[in-house]
Amino acid sequence: MPLQEEFLQRYPEFNQTDINLVGLFIDDAQSEISQKRWGKLYQRGVMALTAHLLRLRLDTSENQGNAHHNLAGESAGELSVSYAVPTMDGSDQYYQLTAYGQEYLRLRKLVGIGVMVA
Questions:
Q1: Is 71 helix (H, G, I), strand (E, B) or coil?
Q2: What is the Cα–Cα distance from 39 to 24, expressed in whole angstroms?
Q3: Dihedral sign computed on CA atoms, order 71, 74, 76, 77
Q4: Residues 43-82: pLDDT tens digits?
Q5: Angle at which helices 3-10 and 42-62 pack, to 10 degrees?
Q6: For residue 110, which of 8, 38, 31 has the smallest C-alpha distance?
Q7: Can you tell me the distance from the alpha carbon of 31 to that of 46, in angstroms, rounded to the nearest whole number?
Q8: Packing angle, helices 42-62 and 19-32, rounded to 10
């Protein structure tokens, strides 16, 4: 079974997404994960990272290019909202933006890979 079809079985919420876009993000995820290092968890890691990248891409499209921010605070009286802005400082905060990114981190922990700094 092609990886794109397996991805859509695992993450059916992306069924309406263009299959070519799914393939593009699978390629991106594969280029970021070492099959040798991840071993048996490689495909699951690729799919979780693909879902994370794809969800962020779709959110960006829906928000007309605006950055995605996690809600950090909220009030009702006198309406107050604050957002946590993730930093791209080599930490894992970027992956916390989606449930898929959190799954990727969980799998990465099982593989024994810590924060990767370029």
A1: strand
A2: 22
A3: negative
A4: 999 999 999 999 999 887 665 545 555 545 565 566 766 6
A5: 70
A6: 38
A7: 9
A8: 120
Query: Which is nearest to 31 in space by CA: 42, 18, 19?
Result: 42
DSSP 67: P
Residue length, the chain? 118
Token pair for 38: 């991840």
Residue 23 burial (10 A CB sphere; 0-12, 13-18, 19+): middle
- For Cα atoms 107, 110, 112, give the angle at the middle one, nearest 5 degrees: 115
Residues 6-20 have pLDDT tens digits of: 999 999 999 999 999
Max CA distance (Å), the chain: 54
**DSSP state letter for 85:** P
Q: Tell me if 23 sits within 8 A of 4, measured CB to CB.
A: yes
